[in-house]
Amino acid sequence: MTKQRFGVTSGSNLRCRGWRQEGLLRLLENVLSVGEDPANLVVYAALGKAARDWPSHDAIVHALTTMGDDETLIVQSGKPIGVVKTHERAPVVIMANCNMVGQWAKAEEFYRLEKKGLICWGGLTAGDWQYIGSQGVIQGTYEIFRRIAERHFDGDLTGRLILTSGLGGMGGAQPLAGRLAGAIILCVEVDEARIARRIDSGYLQHHATSLDDAMRLVEAARAAGNASSIGLCGNAADIFPEILARGIVPDIVTDQTSAHDLIYGYVPTGLSLGEVKALRQSDPEALSRLSLASIARHVQAMLDFRAAGSVVFDNGNLIRTQAKTAGIEHAFDIPIFTEAYLRPLFARGIGPFRWIALSNDERDLRRIDEYLLKTFADNPSVVNWITLARQHIPIEGMPARIAWLGHGDRTKVGLDVNRMVREGILSGPVAFTRDHLDAGAMAHPNIMTENLKDGSDAIADWPLLNAMLACSSQADLVAIHSGGGGYAGYMTSAGVTTIADGSSEADERLRLTLTNDTSLGVMRYADAGYGEAVEEIERSRIPYINLAGHGG
Amino acid sequence: MTKQRFGVTSGSNLRCRGWRQEGLLRLLENVLSVGEDPANLVVYAALGKAARDWPSHDAIVHALTTMGDDETLIVQSGKPIGVVKTHERAPVVIMANCNMVGQWAKAEEFYRLEKKGLICWGGLTAGDWQYIGSQGVIQGTYEIFRRIAERHFDGDLTGRLILTSGLGGMGGAQPLAGRLAGAIILCVEVDEARIARRIDSGYLQHHATSLDDAMRLVEAARAAGNASSIGLCGNAADIFPEILARGIVPDIVTDQTSAHDLIYGYVPTGLSLGEVKALRQSDPEALSRLSLASIARHVQAMLDFRAAGSVVFDNGNLIRTQAKTAGIEHAFDIPIFTEAYLRPLFARGIGPFRWIALSNDERDLRRIDEYLLKTFADNPSVVNWITLARQHIPIEGMPARIAWLGHGDRTKVGLDVNRMVREGILSGPVAFTRDHLDAGAMAHPNIMTENLKDGSDAIADWPLLNAMLACSSQADLVAIHSGGGGYAGYMTSAGVTTIADGSSEADERLRLTLTNDTSLGVMRYADAGYGEAVEEIERSRIPYINLAGHGG
Ligand SMILES: NC(=O)c1ccc[n+]([C@@H]2O[C@H](COP(=O)([O-])OP(=O)(O)OC[C@H]3O[C@@H](n4cnc5c(N)ncnc54)[C@H](O)[C@@H]3O)[C@@H](O)[C@H]2O)c1
Ligand SMILES: NC(=O)c1ccc[n+]([C@@H]2O[C@H](COP(=O)([O-])OP(=O)(O)OC[C@H]3O[C@@H](n4cnc5c(N)ncnc54)[C@H](O)[C@@H]3O)[C@@H](O)[C@H]2O)c1
């Protein structure tokens, strides 16, 4: 039995006993409404699911609509296990998704367990109902492009060409982020329908019919001095080498195909989408081998672009790891985006903070935008981003915004918005959450924590502490996720959501959750030896225990 | 700077702001006072430590003695990171010890990180200050022997010979457990000093000078119809084959050397302890190879005993896994103790529950013993165990008791004891905790969760949920541990401690913590398809969401 329509709920009618439960229920509806394949509960990244299966989904909905304020729903890999009596300051929902014991945490074991219906992958924000559509990563991608602009192009990407691939749930943010950053961006995508979808949603402008056509569109934009986004249907493992062969050297090259998953994600060259689908069932191992071979070509082209002068970076899809397996020795010469561009932000606790207007009323989002523009008037990066976002980012699902805010600022926004809910300035409650790719929230040695100063890349204590601390800080939903599919064994992260329902209890929930979340993130980077974090600790008096002086 | 004396604190003087903090501080002192090598912070199992290093230890003590009741101390692999404001129903301490991202969770990476001072292994109960000396495992070992007696020897082990090895922190419980179970037990231990130590503590009776002497002692006990425990200095990899060669077939054979760790644990044959110590530094890889080769001989002898008719089982030290690596194809023919003997108990939430009298007053322990004998008068296994324990188990460190109790019973004991504290029947507060080897608390596919009915052996969501739930249920200390050393990548578990200080708040803390802890354990087994668990859910109305009927 499969649900057929995926809408979100508006207004102030409660189906649950309170807004904490109702808010989480609306978020669950929301991730499906903006998801890539909601009929199969898939939200993004090929396999990232909102619930294990439909009976689990329905039982989760039932639990949320019936449980009391002093109860906690336990979810194990997308399946609800029980609703137990806790207390009013305990989370409404705790979840652990896709965690496997280390020596077993491999793609094959994941697929085996998944096939048996014993596990499901929650992606980062799918399984814990925090996904807000392509907007979720757009500011991250935008910040990377801006930072590259500053470092390599005198702060100006006008006339500069970005080459990338993948226009899926996350990758679909790239054309808009590139255009907002002022560049011309060419996106190679193997699935025609994904290109159409991004054009429909306003994230992508042009659909090129061939590489020649694409390059004409690039040249036209360049001549006019315009930013532009162009989609081209094709396989990156073919098109990247072809561009190279023509002697074209883009200014920036990256990729966001689902390279992390050799079976359900990456599409190898030479096969139609239908053939890939069939092979997934009939011979997944052969499909893996073909994907690996294509990724080798794909990454070799990226390395060649790098040698030719392009700024090339890995945007967090494990493509280097796969390429290395496929024999591309130097794959890791390509730097990871976190280390290259975002680490100084994370060290200060600045990361992808987000909120969702649970009323489903766009005006609530606008009012919070205005509040931000006023309150952060002296913070150009916030002003710049909110201004762009208001103008250019289409609403998907419930009105939501992402903004890279740090320690202290997040708490301030949470409390101010809660007051706005209380005072009726907003028409309904607001949910606060963040990406898992946040300072204290993720251990991911090939992406988030690659090459940390102290070498603590692989230590996963931090996300676990992050989740335990959130449970101890009155968050409404807390999740621990590990990688599934090709990410199996590669990462562990924590997710947290807190509902601003205008109550004074919500003040306390938000104050503790948001403050402790960023505090731990900054402490994690201070512990790893980052000066920015040590500064932030002093500036904000974060209660870090500094043992450095004692040889600790 | 190393501490030199390791005592415990008595009486009702508080060094902290309340008993929750004071109790945890006393437990920290206690694990060192009963630990194997406290000067190096090692509590048991070769590397299981109470804190990362001495500066960390001192900073933990400082934090516990100064923090308020609405604050939480964060500990990452034995190092205190910060004390943050939470609230009065949040844990005093949260910790994550030795967790590594799956693909990196290997012994070599652990040693690399350990050497850099970035991580430390907490064992199960060392890092979270729950260890209570050899007594901790004694009932577990006793229960296994009793179960073997019932299944294979008409319930009577009189005159039966148990052969085992390893008299370390945990293994040292074997001679006493074997004797309490009525058997003659021969323990092979390579380190003379360990034998002496177990004799001093009253856990072991005889020190044989040779195998001939040992066998004479066995025969004498058999002739007299006595239970008996005999220690023999030697290497199991030599002595086991020698016993076999003499045509002696023990009734029961097991092992509790630190086989999980090829460098710091197992001692290979042919080397003196001094030579092993030197090799750890000079050539750890050579040492690993030698250990593996010895383990192969050791396990081959165990398999040969099995073929000759002995009841042989693995007692949870990964010796089969190592032997398999060393080429012993059939190592896993030896069953693991959990599956063979304890699973029906775990499925009902029955497991190694324990309490510690924080007053350090033995009379408190006696009073709780008496309460148990009265309250559980109709439960022969409790009565039998408490009676034996009172008579035979020497007190190590603070007075503590272990008893295998299940869902409901644990909550009852917790609440009754808290009342006894409140009414002054006991002279001070009592800490409640349990081993990590408990129903919902551990994923350990080669030990705890081997061969589960549904195949969910490697899923680690459960211990993570267990920890999150404990944080949400007002536990005082919550820990997530993963394996270090040779256990790296093999397990994840959760620890929880709650202090009964006689207050009504403690009533709530104990009710929620103890009830939810066993509830989750039973749900885990119900989810895996165990009938005992489904029965317990019905009997105790555990709020499990049963999707079985819906194909979930
Ligand atoms: N920066 C980050 O930390 C971050 C954030 C989110 C997602 N990701 C990763 O980015 C990747 C993309 O995520 P998503 O949610 O967009 O995944 P998705 O599965 O929704 O989309 C992937 C897209 O790539 C296309 N594709 C696959 N193989 C291709 C090929 N050879 N050539 C051209 N197109 C191809 C697919 O058709 C699909 O549209 C994933 O690996 C994801 O885990 C990274
Ligand atoms: N049943 C369980 O679940 C459970 C509980 C606790 C410990 N364990 C495991 O049991 C093992 C023992 O734990 P411990 O705390 O006693 O460890 P320990 O390191 O304190 O003691 C191990 C003992 O084995 C001896 N030894 C080593 N190699 C030997 C050999 N070849 N022959 C004879 N003796 C040898 C050592 O001298 C030492 O005394 C560990 O692997 C531990 O992880 C299992």
From TrEMBL, chains A, B:
Binding-site list for NAD(+): 169-171, 189, 194, 235-236, 256-260, 266-267, 485
Cofactor: NAD(+)
Source superkingdom: Bacteria
InterPro entries found in the cross-reference section: Urocanase, Urocanase-like, Urocanase_C, Urocanase_central_sf, Urocanase_N, Urocanase_Rossmann-like, Urocanase_sf
Catalytic reactions on record: 4-imidazolone-5-propanoate = trans-urocanate + H2O
Main location: cytoplasm
Biochemical pathway: Amino-acid degradation; L-histidine degradation into L-glutamate; N-formimidoyl-L-glutamate from L-histidine: step 2/3
EC number annotated for this UniProt entry: 4.2.1.49
Domain Urocanase C-terminal: 344-538
Pfam name, any one: Urocanase_C
Sequence ranges assigned to domain Urocanase Rossmann-like in this UniProt record: 133-341
UniProt entry tagged with the keyword Lyase: yes
Cell compartment(s), UniProt: Cytoplasm
Record-level GO cellular component terms: cytoplasm
GO molecular function, one term: urocanate hydratase activity
Alphabetical GO biological process terms: L-histidine catabolic process to glutamate and formamide; L-histidine catabolic process to glutamate and formate
Residue ranges annotated for the Urocanase N-terminal domain, each copy included: 10-129
Cross-referenced Gene3D superfamilies: Urocanase like domains, Urocanase superfamily
Free-text remark on how the cofactor is bound: Binds 1 NAD(+) per subunit.
Keywords assigned by UniProt, alphabetized: Cytoplasm, Histidine metabolism, Lyase, NAD
Function: Catalyzes the conversion of urocanate to 4-imidazolone-5-propionate.
Record HAMAP family: HutU
NCBIfam families reported for this sequence: hutU, PRK05414.1
Family according to the record: Belongs to the urocanase family.
Protein name: Urocanate hydratase
Species of provenance: Gluconacetobacter azotocaptans
